Amino acid sequence: MSEILKQLQGALAGHNPLVYIHSPEEERIMRGLQQAAENQGLARISCWSCLKGLDGQPDSQGPAAALQLVVSQDLRGLLVFKDLAPFLGQPEVARALREAFLDGQSKQDRILVLLCAELNIPETLKKEMYLLDISTPDEEEIASLVQALNQDHSHPAIPEAAVREIILALKGLTENEIRYVLQRACTRTSAGKDELLDEIFTEKKSVVKKSGFLEFSPPRWDIDSLGGLDNLKSWLKRREKIFSREALEAGVPIPKGLLMMGVSGCGKSLAVKTISALWNIPMFRLDMNLVFSGMYGTPEEAFHRALKTIEAVAPAVLWIDEIENALGLDESGQRVASHIFSSFLTWMQEKPPLIFIAATANKIQALPAEVLRKGRFDEVFFCDLPTAPEREEIFRIHLARNGANLEEFDFKMLQVLSEGWNGAEIEQAVISARTDAFYEQRTFNQRDLSNVISRIVPLSDTMETQIKAIRSWAFSRATPASKYGKSAARR
Known about the structure:
Layout: H1 3-13, E1 18-22, H2 26-39, E2 45-49, E3 53-54, H3 63-72, E4 77-82, H4 91-104, E5 110-116, E6 130-133, H5 139-151, H6 163-170, H7 175-185, H8 193-209, E7 214-217, H9 230-238, H10 245-249, E8 257-262, H11 268-279, E9 283-286, H12 288-293, H13 299-312, E10 316-320, H14 323-326, H15 338-350, E11 355-361, H16 369-372, E12 379-383, H17 388-401, H18 411-417, H19 423-439, H20 446-455, H21 459-462, H22 464-474, E13 479-480
């Protein structure tokens, strides 16, 4: 028996006169209700909509009139009212629902179901309503859809070896979204696993974009494009195969998340972006500015919806940039938005296993012990200013990306000239040198780069005191992301 049928049968078995089903999947819910009603002996199903009324009866398009009709004619069976949520704020509709509830308490063969895509229960009816929040199709239902698709084609549209991974990737999508994304992907004559996964990730990007405060981060950054931070990269590579359904079923502890803190411009955000491509799962950045803006209701409500949305599209990486600001913490770590902070900590403990949290922080002194303690994150990495060998690696990456001939550059000299620089400053120096050379219509060279370097004042000079404080704070509290740090990374 599928999970949705278990939920619906459980709701009907209680014979509660009023049942509120929260789900955007009307067709799927109606099929489940028909089967559940038969199992409970409720043979008749009547439906109401604001266009057709109650089973097409005259003068029943109005919700209050239709509800009064249920009571006056003593209708029995399963009565499904579709899209009633927008009308629940009307006093006459709320009163009619209460009267239907009171009248139906003694009638075991009448259950009134509100099937709504939005959750909008009036305060006056919360005690009377039995709320059922139906999740998207589980793996059993998705497997049935995939099997049906393969049977409709002369040859398997989805390779057998990829079925398990495709089913996992489709979790969080509605039945119609799954059907459409598979049909789009299978119109190609030779859709392999990677093409199917790309199509699924594109669909999930669309789903998340509708929420407004979650932004899809495309997996375009390869981990080899990240200079230095070898301990961090090794940690991510070792967990690439562990973050999977197979590892979960085998009882292997699934990575929960990591926190990267340190000097600004040292590659924290770029390191987060490489996780998506390395693990081949979608990444979504939570824009807390929009959460706090009030555009999507109260911050607490918007934050709750954001977490529910990311749960729906798991497996996924949730990226929270500058977590100290995102969770409403001031410079001293005081909780400006305490409700959101406490809700997030609770969610971190109870979230589904296949959601990985990648957080970055600049003001590390503002992070309270509740965030840093073991169990919240698997590891806390400190990203320091790159060492000389790491700066050379970063130079090589950016020079190659900008079409330079690496043999024409003196990297030992660049190591010396860039002492105390961070990765962002090295990248900008290369871009400026190439821009200057392009203006003069020639290939940029060592001289262009040296001239640019001589004009830039690095952050380590302008914020020397703050950087020393950051290093001092992190020395005994975090694992160095670089292999040249104080110790080898803990594994």
